[in-house]
Amino acid sequence: xxxxxxGCAGCCLDWRPLLEADGESGGRQRTRSVPxxxxxxxxxxxxxxxxxxxxxxxxxLTRDEVRTFLERGMAAALTPRFWTVEDEREGVxxxxxxxxxxxxxxxxxxxxxKPPKPAAPFDREEATWLPACVFLDPTTxxxxxxxxxxxxxxxxTYPEQTLxxxxxxxxxxxxxxxxxxxxxERDHDEPDGLLFGPQALGAKLxxxxxxxxxxxxxxxLERGEPSPTDRAECIAVAAASSPGTVAVxxxxxxxxxxxxxxxxxxxxxxIGPAIEEWYRTRPGExxxxxxxxxxxxxxxxxxxxxxxx
Length: 309
Ligand code: SF4
Hints:
The chain contains 11 helices and 10 strands. It is of the alpha+beta class. The protein has one domain (16-300). Strands 1, 2, 3, 4, 5 and 10 form a 6-stranded antiparallel β-sheet that branches. The chain has a two-stranded antiparallel sheet with strand order 6-7. A two-stranded antiparallel sheet has the order 8-9. Helix 8 packs across helix 9 (250-262). Residues 12, 59, 112, 133, 135-136, 143, 145-146, 152, 155 line the site of iron/sulfur cluster (SF4).
């Protein structure tokens, strides 16, 4: 299949603030791999689940990818997403909310964080602060880890996975709102290893074994303020999960927590400090400049992007 990604990055950032700036209403939270009621997916199955944490177009990682990020010292890039449910039979009670659960265990994704970055996608002249993937270079609108062994499967199969589900792609949403030709053909290969249904359990959809311990974590997620401890807890459970089951290996969980606490610097040590600085920088920058990325990301060692040939 052929897509035209230059100047877009519509699937790597949350462009809904542009609609609000232009006087339109924004859309709802999306996860790339789960069809929503407004995606033409299974309305009955998905319409009552509301994401808790994460971000629009949340890129959910597999268990093995979470482990790779952990081993490379890249866990600062990760955050969890849970879901609240209206139908109590679909979930488990945690404090005053019901969260989606399997076998009485709250389920969650672990995916990539989106700190605010100044970006001007879709040929806009002025940049706007937009929640953007930790790995998106806002100056080139390209991915800093494309083609590397850390590039998430979900990004590599987008938008094929969405077309395979018969749902609307982000490319088409961008075309509808901002014009241009993004999705140049709809023919596509069948993406390998789509993790939906029971096979997602323990492989991409993780189960937390202790719902009673999650109330504070879910409160902070709802406020958009998960703590490093909250994120570490979910990353460790995900890394200790076993595909096809709800089981969590205690030794793997403990090792993951130790790795998270060891904070060993390596080539990707730029990630955490850059995210923190993006969050600190936003309030004081009335007219944002994508070139801030040179100071905040490049200077700290973020990989360069190849440019458009
Ligand atoms: S990892 Fe790369 S391709 Fe995937 S959302 Fe982030 S910037 Fe985009």
